[in-house]
Structures
1.
Amino acid sequence: MTSVQLSHGKTEYELHGPEAGPLVVLLHGGSIPMWTWDRQAPVLIKAGFRVLQYDMYGKGKSACPPLEHDRDLFRGQLLDLLDSLGITEPVHLVGFSFGGATAANFTAHHPEKVRSIALISPVFHFADGNSMVRIARLPAVGNMFLHFILMKKALDRASRLWSGADNAEHYTNLFRDQLRQPGFERGLLSFFRSDALDNYSTVYKKIGREGRKTILVWGSEDEDIPSSHIALIRSLMPLSKYHELPGIGHGAVFQASGQVNDLLLEHLGPA
């Protein structure tokens, strides 16, 4: 991994693949860092794409700035990263869960920088009815309560994503390591309390009007993103190609990596 100093702190990233290949940027979810893409990045690189993946602020090995961890912080981080790496051509964005919402938010604000979008189990309004967010937003929640309640819930939820996949214990250990990273708990609490997980309808509506090449992938047994939210995204982005994965939960990138990879390669086209 390589790090770069951006506006709000260090960002860990990996950039691999042929220099002449079309650039694909992989955006992980709200609590699992860039190793989310262990099963996708090598396939895309082998197909001839240049792949950029990074840890968002407060996740993985990136800095946890003492700021509100809202949607604009993460949009700005991606913009800073592209600028710092001298990337000026439009890129393909692939976002999973919160990364999907971030990809959409970035595209709505910087349409000239985006070539296509792939949304995998994307967040629409995660705060709506979610117990972890509800706990985090209680006025009296303190650090000890966060540590014993919210961190356990975060681990339990994360473990579901790779349940049944190969190397499940390996991913659980990686996530436990992240829980011990300085600032992770503080960053996660700020993330849950900010607008990062609130309603993204205006964002999806804006990019839906542009008719940009987009695919939407969702597992029929998703425990975190309800079918009603996917239906709303589809209504706001009627030109996007929709692919439903029967029997797959929220962790499609782990549980159905082969199907996801095939869909990504079809969407991206020849490198």
Note: The chain has a mean pLDDT of 94.
2.
Amino acid sequence: MSSKVFFASARSRYGNNLTSKLERLFDAVGLGDLIDEKDFVALKMHWGEAGNIAYVPAPLIVTILRKIEKAGGKPFVTDTNTLYKGSRRNAIDNLSTAYANGFAFSNTGVPVIIADGLFGQDFVNVKIDGVHFKECKIASAIYNSQALVSVAHFKGHEATGFGGTLKNIGMGCAASSGKQNQHSDVKPGVKKKLCVGCGTCLKKCPVDAISLNDDKKAVIDKKKCIGCAECTVACRFNAIAINWKTDLKLMNEKMAEYAFAAVKGKTEKSVFFNVIMRISPDCDCFDFNDIPIVPDIGIAVSRDPVAVDQASVDLVNKAPVVPGSALGDSPDCKDKFMTLHNTDWSMQLDHAEKMGLGTRDYTLVEIN
């Protein structure tokens, strides 16, 4: 049985702007009907690393927050601490980044809560019957909320092909140790012929697993490596690579199982938005964002997290490539995320479907 995915185009005009379309999407998916009076509603988003400006802008988030409040809920904006070095690794830095990027109380009217606490140690063990996990470490503020609204910026991702709803709730709702458990099979290696010994990867590694040998070549200590894959993007010389075909299958499946755990107990009170705009080739976790690979498409929403990701991929793959972007040399590519990152993005969707999280079969209902 197919799931409904509601969609509004990014095309706007006087009297029909994107925020008004977003309000209609909210009503179409029936989000207001899922919220009971005084429900705590976690709006899970990614407000971007400092220096990145591709994340979902505050006015769209505020539109959803006001609709939640009108339905009787008590919303808060939330995300978790990161595994890698950056501006969001602990709650203080994470909050400061959220405020700097436009999500202070003065802008949104609701608090920002770091869901897994000061250092990522505030979580609840959620039991599941997964292939890889029997329990998952879900951030407590998200677990303890009565309802979950995921608002994901849909974009490329170096390890999962794309980052959308499943990544926003699977990786994004996990405490730091849960993120590490999902990454544990990803072990990059150094191509010595390409390494120039610049040391950039050393600075990016959160656990000091990389050093330079006597030949000034990077060496990765596999025992220390936690598989965050930050070094692969930090290297400007393509000298650090991952065994994409084997390691990433496990990571994608683990992420799908964490997504299942994140909504357990609130599947009937969860809704998933994908903002398919400013579609950058890489994750918002980096302190930069490249130009979009395709033009702005719009916003999709569903009660089915698998269906909304599948629909979003299909919409991106139908769109024309932006000249001069990371896909500029492949204007006729049929699978844009596979072309970008050489990884099979369908792995996360397949496993999520097998877990019973949703279906890849969907009906697109346009709301304009």
Note: The chain has a mean pLDDT of 95.
